[in-house]
Amino acid sequence: MSEEKERSQLQSQTDTTGTDDAPLQDYQSSLPGFLGTIDTAISRIESVLLAAGVLLMALNTISNVVGRFVFQSSIFFSEELNRILIILITFAGISYAARQGRHIRMSAIFDALPPRPRKVLMVIIAIVTAIFMLGLAWYSLQYILTQAGRGRVLPSLQIPVWIILVWVPVGFFMTGLQYALTAIKNLIEKDIYLSTSVLEGYDDGEMEV
């Protein structure tokens, strides 16, 4: 009974049709114990960063357009602020896409395998990707430290350049954790998972690559 309930919850999370009238619910991880706490925390951080980034970008862009055409004076830091928000949205979005199982997959060989080899391959893919993402987080952190040592600042906002790049290692780190949790999810569950909350398979509107 609990397995059917979990499948129903996962289906509701992955279904992209007919959800316009459904009430929004907070993400609750199906991973046990501390792992579930980490997974849920990452999900909430992603939601806050993406929502704040998109809303601020929209507000900044609209305000700049109104100022330019109505008051004949644009916001002098608008371009730099949007650049900061694009970096934020991009790297928070990497982790979000990993959680939703939406990253591009070359699955011809994977789909041709029997279930057990597919599961093994999914674990390997998740582990390798997690290592790669965490490695990128480390190297991007070193780059930020280098930029901080140079003392460069943005021309308009006059804030250090390294501050706007903080989201790069943060995004890579959250993505690495997400793939690591996906590997663990596949090790402790019988089914094959593309992420901690998305079972292997395709929606009606999707195509295999």
UniProtKB/TrEMBL annotation:
Residues 57-185 form the Tripartite ATP-independent periplasmic transporters DctQ component domain. The keyword Transmembrane applies. Keywords: Cell inner membrane, Cell membrane, Membrane, Transmembrane, Transmembrane helix, Transport. Residues 1-24 are annotated as: Disordered. GO terms for biological process: C4-dicarboxylate transport. Residues 9-19 have a biased composition (Polar residues). One of its GO terms (molecular function) is transmembrane transporter activity. The chain crosses the membrane at residues 48-71, 83-99, 120-139, 159-181. GO terms for cellular component: plasma membrane. It is a multi-pass membrane protein. It is found in: Cell inner membrane. Belongs to the TRAP transporter small permease family. Part of the tripartite ATP-independent periplasmic (TRAP) transport system. The complex comprises the extracytoplasmic solute receptor protein and the two transmembrane proteins. This is TRAP transporter small permease protein. The lineage of its organism: Bacteria, Pseudomonadati, Pseudomonadota, Alphaproteobacteria, Rhodobacterales.
